[in-house]
Amino acid sequence: MTDWHSLQSRLPLLDRSRLVHLRQDLGGEVVQRLLSLFIEDIRQQRKDLVQAFADQDYVRLSHSCHSLKSVCGSYGVLRCQFLSEKLEVAGRRGDSEQVSAMTPVLLQGLTALLEEMTNETGGG
Which residues are in the HPt domain (predicted)? Predict the structure, then answer.
């Protein structure tokens, strides 16, 4: 098992304390709307990542990962933030072996995140 794989598996998908702090700071209704926007953003970015990977467009993949890294960090999505950062670097280096290994893991994490966040917001 590679170092990044071992490290990511120890990170929680979602740091729920971040959501608690957001609710305390902004209020439940505002956070609910933000989370709905976050879910839509993640869905679109996941599609973009899938397409960039399929096209072997590592520049686009790196840009997508950079954006994912930022948005995941804002909401305490630690595992996907970590993977996005590592995949961004691999894409910039043109490291096809690492990109091929990491992309499915990040996509799996984003899918799990979308399921969890949809449940969190009560949306469908």
Answer: 27-124
The per-residue pLDDT for range 52-106, each reduced to its tens digit, is: 999 999 999 999 999 999 999 999 999 999 999 999 999 999 999 999 999 999 9
Cβ neighbours for 8, distance < 8 A, ≥ 6 positions apart? 79, 82, 83, 86, 105, 109
CATH number at residue 96: 1.20.120.160
Position 124 in a domain: no
Which two tokens mark 30? 């505002």
pTM (global) more than 0.70: yes
pLDDT in tens, 16-59: 999 999 999 999 999 999 999 999 999 999 999 999 999 999 99
> Structurally, how many domains does the chain consist of?
1
User: Per the domain annotation, does 96 fall within a domain?
Assistant: yes
- Tell me the one-letter amino acid at 95: D
